[in-house]
Amino acid sequence: MKIVTAVAPVNIAVIKYWGKRDETLILPINDSISATLSLEHMCAKTSIVCSPDLTETKFWLNGELQPTDSKRFQNCLREIKKLVNPNLEYLSWNLSICSENNFPTAAGLASSAAGYACLVYALAKIYEINGNISSIARMGSGSACRSIFGGWVRWQMGNTTDGSDSLAVQIAPETHWPEMRVLVLVVNDKTKTYSSTSGMKTSVETSTLLKHRAANIVPQRTKEMITAIKNKDYKTFAKLTMQDSNQFHAVCLDTYPPCFYLNDTSRAIIELIHFYNQNKGETKVAYTFDAGPNACLYLLEKDVAEVIAMINYVFPPTSLKSDYFKGDTVPSKKLDEVSLK
Ligand SMILES: Nc1ncnc2c1ncn2[C@@H]1O[C@H](COP(=O)(O)OP(=O)(O)OP(=O)(O)O)[C@@H](O)[C@H]1O
Ligand SMILES: C[C@@](O)(CCOP(=O)(O)OP(=O)(O)O)CC(=O)O
After folding, report:
1. What is the reported pLDDT for 272?
2. How far apart are CA 117 and CA 59, in angstroms?
3. What is the per-residue pLDDT for 318?
4. Residue 163, pLDDT above cutoff 60
5. Pocket around ligand 1: residues whose beta carbon is below 6 Å from it?
6. Cα 71 to chain centroid, rounded
7. Rounded distance, CA 333 to CA 45, Å?
8. Which reactions is this enzyme annotated as catalysing (predicted)?
9. Longest C-alpha distance within the chain, in Å?
10. Which of 67, 209, 213, 276 is most buried, most CB within 10 Å of its CB?
11. Which helix (H) or strand (E) holds 127?
């Protein structure tokens, strides 16, 4: 019997991935950029048992049995197994996989990114594979390819049909911008109505704004974002981050039928942050929202205490779940192996 437990971090995009050019291989229509958060507060944790006594492969997520015949799960398992020494005695043994997220799942806080990065990493450990597993994680969930690396990561969309050039690469390591912090404001921890997968599929089919974004906006914005990150230019970084989040949600509205991910509290957070920055006379804090109402704020360490105080003052305790309202850190540690027997 073999047992592995691994933990993997979430990543929060500052240039959003939204739209696929290949649904099976999970190839995107534009580049994206994210920071991988530290494992301290938010992570997926996955344990895998591999044993000759197991009669079938099973997968539990947050205590609930999941189907193992999904294309994504099977693709990850198949691609990992392709890299395994065919003589490995336990290659044919079944697996018992158990994963848990210590933060809301499918609520727009990148659970699929941490979850599939963790699954693929744990599988690689079980089968003793070394090498870059980011492209395999991508086949589980696109954004997962970025969670394999720490620090600032770019997922290059690539152009080939086989996806060989659609790769995540590190722009800057976790040590690059040590003052950077992320605050996660949980507005609603419920599972969202439209998954990212189905939302972006409808956007690709119906949104003309998404076509314009992918062709004419993201290429230039990606270059500017990389320069801002490399130069630690917070003002430019913050503006690009907020503009990209807003454009992504504009695409969601331009989708037919529209996907509403933001709610009134999300919009109040956006207004508050612009008001606060304006009153301070400089950009102190930037928001970004994934496919959900929950805000991620990027800000510098020196401003964390005041921004937390301001948010606590404006929002009554019931409107934000203070359990999750905490500072996470970028720089991050990478994936971690908890134990290996
Ligand atoms: N720990 C995990 N292990 C494996 N799969 C997971 C795990 N956590 C989440 N997932 C998968 O990811 C799905 C949620 O993905 P989805 O992209 O809709 O939400 P999200 O990643 O939380 O939000 P967003 O993509 O907007 O940041 C879950 O329904 C489940 O299939
Ligand atoms: C809004 C996003 O978080 C979308 C993430 O989409 P997913 O990676 O969850 O989608 P699939 O590839 O279909 O699994 C933006 C981002 O993380 O870049």
Report:
1. 96
2. 15
3. 63
4. yes
5. 44, 61, 99, 101, 105-113, 115-116, 118-119, 141, 143, 195-196, 290-292
6. 20
7. 15
8. (R)-5-diphosphomevalonate + ATP = isopentenyl diphosphate + ADP + phosphate + CO2
9. 66
10. 213
11. none
What's 31's DSSP letter? Answer: -
Distance, in Å, from the CA atom of 153 to the CA atom of 9, rounded to the nearest integer, reads 13
The pair of structure tokens assigned to 283 is 């950009």
Confidence at residue 11, expressed as pLDDT on a 0 to 100 scale: 95
Residue type, 222: T
Q: Say yes or no to pLDDT of 315 above 90.
A: no
Is 3.40.50.300 the CATH classification of the domain at 2-337? no
Which residue pairs from 202-207 have beta carbons closer than 8 angstroms and sit at least 24 positions apart in sequence? 202/255, 202/256, 202/257, 202/259, 203/18, 203/19, 203/251, 203/252, 203/254, 203/255, 203/259, 204/19, 204/20, 204/29, 206/254, 206/255, 206/256, 207/251, 207/254, 207/255, 207/256
Q: Whose CA is nearest to atom 19 of ligand 1?
A: 106
User: Which range, 36-45, 157-166, 311-320, has the best average confidence (pLDDT)?
Assistant: 157-166
Closest CA to 153 of 295, 9, 20: 9
Structure-block tokens of residue 89: 């005695």
pLDDT over threshold 60, residue 330: no
Question: What distance, in Å, lies between the first and last C-alpha atoms of the chain?
Answer: 9
Ligand nearest to the CA of 201: 2
Ligand 1 centroid – CA 107 distance (Å): 8
Contact 223, 231 (CB under 8 A): no
Question: What residue spans define the domains of the chain?
Answer: 2-337
Mutation test residue for ligand 1: of 45, 58, 111, 145, the one with most atoms within 8 Å of CB: 111
Q: Report pLDDT for 321.
A: 55
> Are residues 245 and 108 in contact, defined by beta-carbon separation less than 8 angstroms?
no
Q: Where are the alpha helices (DSSP H) in the chain?
A: 71-82, 111-126, 134-138, 144-147, 196-206, 208-212, 218-230, 234-254, 264-280, 304-314
Band (pLDDT 50/70/90 cuts) for residue 337 is low
Looking at 70-79, 114-123, 182-191, which range is the least confident one? 182-191
